[in-house]
Each structure stands twice: as structure tokens, then as C-alpha cells.
Amino acid sequence: MKIRLIEPADANDHLAFTQQLDNETSYMLMEPGERKPTANQHQHMVNEFIMKDRLVLFIVEDAGTVVGHAMGVGGSTIRNCRTASVVIGLLPAYHRLGIGKRLLRHLEAWAKERRLRRLELTVIEDNTGARALYEHFGFQEEGVKQDSLFAHGTYVNEIMMAKLL
């Protein structure tokens, strides 16, 4: 498994990965089929992550196929520029292999290089595997966003978590 920064040539493969992820897990934000950017729109997004210092996008490759990613989105104002929101997604076949820990280490190193103070994220309440990973890595629960998402015909809670660096 190789973890590296995304490159412009990865845009189409990354888009295919995100669509597959939406189909294979119910723990990401979008429902299957909801993610519909054009190839050009996704290429633009990838280019933004490459060009802007406050953004980062790592991909996980297995034999040349994208199977995971981790994003960091730093604040864009003077008041929030020391904080980054984090999103991690892995295809279910790659869960519990230590890849999430490796991705979090990459994100933390990126954040420390930029002298960020805080990493934050939300996780669906019943995603116990991800919650355990984040807690193991030093993230602490800060609150509950009650009924913040509607999935599979019911409302679900999101847990807000953060780690101070």
C-alpha cells in the first residue's frame, strides 16, 4: 500500500474511487449516485488541493488503484487558519489494516509543518471502528450534532471530535 499526495493525473481515478466509496459504505456524506461532478470539475478540485497550501489530499494506492484518501482543509481566515477539518475514506476491504493510522500520521505531519493547532472532524455515531481509531490517535469527543444527517430512512447523529497539536 502506498500513500502519497495526489497529482493532477490522478483526478479520474480519484473520482472513480469516491463514487465507489459512496456505493460501498454508508458512513460518508453522500449517497450512492449523489456525487456527480464532471471530469473537468473534479480535475479543478484536485488542482485546488495541489495549489493551495491550506489544502491537502493524500491518496492510498494498491497496485495502482486508488483505495483510500485523506483530506485536510485548513481555515481560510485569520481567525480559523490554525484549524483544519479532516476527512478520511477507505474502501471497506481495506479497513482494519492500519491504513487509517498511517493516513492520520500523514495529516498530522502536514498540519504540524503548517503550525496548525487543531484538527477536527465529524463521524457518524454508530461508526464505532472509525471512532475507536480517532480516539486511539488522540481525538476527543467535543459534542453531538443530533439528527444532523438523514440516511437509510432515519436521522443519525454525528460526533464532533478534535485533536490539539
From TrEMBL:
Positions in coiled-coil regions: none
Cited Gene3D superfamilies: 3.40.630.30
InterPro entries: Acyl_CoA_acyltransferase, GNAT_dom
Residue ranges constituting the N-acetyltransferase domain according to the UniProt record: 1-165
GO molecular function terms noted in the UniProt entry: acyltransferase activity, transferring groups other than amino-acyl groups
Record keywords, A-Z: Acyltransferase, Transferase
Keyword Acyltransferase: yes
Keyword Thylakoid (UniProt): no
Protein name from the UniProt record: N-acetyltransferase
